[in-house]
Structure formats: structure tokens, C-alpha cells
Amino acid sequence: MASRTSEKNSRQNRIAEMRRAEKARDRRNKIIAISVSTAVVAGLIGFGSWVIMEQKQKDRDTAAARKAPVDGEQSWDAKKLGRNHVETPVKYEMNPPVGGDHNPRWMNCNGDVYKNPVPEVNAVHSLEHGAVWVTYNDKAAKADVDALAGKVGKTPYTLMSPDKEQAGAIMLSAWGKQLTVEKADDPRVAQFFTKYVQGPQTPEPGAACTNGLGEK
Questions:
Q1: Basic and acidic residues bias: where (predicted)?
Q2: Which spans in the chain are helix H?
């Protein structure tokens, strides 16, 4: 009888010990889970704060770049540039044109690179929507043309086309603004893009650069 009682007590003690060990494991697992979760949340908050700070810095840099003048650019009084939609030919005072009356249909300018000259009256409408128009003549080196095509191809609100009649080898035009450069790696090219792609000169910011006129 005493032996059975001893065995029963021993079994109960083992069960109680197992339960205590199980509870201890549960507590450790909860502590680990809470610690890991806290670390993850803290990491996410820290990363989110870093992303926000980085974006704010980029916004400040872009704002500063848009205020800084582009060395050598030409400007026209935007208030004096016509903005009427016309179906007739338009004679522009500069080549390529940087504004004026234009066709109701714009050239597609979602990073579109055209192999042939485009109608000025349609390209000017693209400028009204905030596009930068890159043009080049036979003086431009093929390597520079290819480099500019790559830049335009990955930049919304830009278009590119040849223009044999223009004076400069490479010319960048926005509404009321124009820059002439000799090489694609001229740092003013990037500055012009930063400042004028959907820049403050845009008469119709946010207007479409797709569903317009494309290359035939």
C-alpha cells in the first residue's frame, strides 16, 4: 500500500514538474516573441523614418534645382506666347519652337523617341503639358544621340526627334525655355530635365502625355 502511494506521488510530482517546465517554456517563447516583434516594429519605424527623411531631402534638392538658373538657357515671356488651338499651320519665331498657338492634338511624350521629325504644332502642345523636347541635327554624334534616347526613354513627359534645320547640335526645349549643348553628358542636360519636366513653367501641369499623336 505504501509502495503504491509512493509511486502515485512520484508520478504526480513528475507531471507537476512537466507542467512547470511547459509553463516556463511558454513564458520564454512569449518573451522571445515579444522581443522579436518589438525589434521588428522598431526597425520598421526606423526604416520608415529614414525613407521619409530621404524623400524630404530629395524634394528639397529638386526644389533647389528648380530655382537655380540653367547656365546658357534662353527664356521667352510665357505671357506673350500664344496658347490657342488651331488647325492651320503656325509660323514660330524660334526653331525648335518653345510655345505659341498649336494643334489641338499633342505628340505622345511619355518618353517617346521619334526617328523622324515631328510636326511642330503637335510638339508645342506637348510642351504646354510640361514635356521637355530634345532635338538634334547632323552635328550631334551618334553616341550622344543614343545616350539622350536612353535618358528620354525612361523619363515620362519627354520626347525626342531629329531637326536638321536647328542651329545647335543638341537642343532642349520646354515651354518658354531652351538650351543648346554639344554633348549628351553636359551636366546642364540633367539640370534642364530636373527643372522643366513638369516644372513650374508648365501651363497645364498634369495634362496627358499619352493618347496623342504618335509616329506613323
A1: 1-25
A2: 2-67, 120-128, 142-153, 187-196
**pTM over cut 0.85:** no
Whether the bond into 96 is cis, omega within 30 of 0? yes
Phi, psi torsion values for 75, nearest 5 degrees:
-130, 145
Secondary structure tally for the chain: helices H, strands E: 4, 6
Other Cβ atoms less than 10 A from the Cβ of 215: the count is 12
Torsional sign, CA 88, 206, 114, 149: positive
- The residue extents of the domains of the chain are 1-67, 74-196
Q: State the pLDDT at residue 66.
A: 65
Look at strands 170-174 and 177-181 and give their pairing. Answer: antiparallel
